[in-house]
Amino acid sequence: MTDRFVTLVTKEKEEVKVPIKITQMSGLISSMLEDHSDDHDEPIPLPSIRKDTLLKIMDYCEKCNYVSDNFVKKPVRTKDIDELFPLAWERQFFQAIELAGLSEILEACNFLDLAKL
Fold first, then answer.
1. Does 67 score more than 60 pLDDT?
2. For the chain: N or C, fewer Cβ within 10 A?
């Protein structure tokens, strides 16, 4: 079976082909695809998300195997990153991002309705 892709258009007007598996983690994109179930060829504009931010989000979704569970427990009661993120790749992912980049990723995830990240 061939992977199916959706084209997302970033803030810079660049097109990024994304596996449908990833887009299904996003409440926003999932509902858009359901509304237009017969036409996945139409690019979906994401005017507030930069390409590098979108690529980081895609990377995270691929690494967590397209599953939108295993959330950080709330309220957060610790500053210990090992306790917050028990998986090594998850700790490395967040430690590699500067605060400004993290803020941008969180805003993009809110826009996309992507609760996992």
1. no
2. N
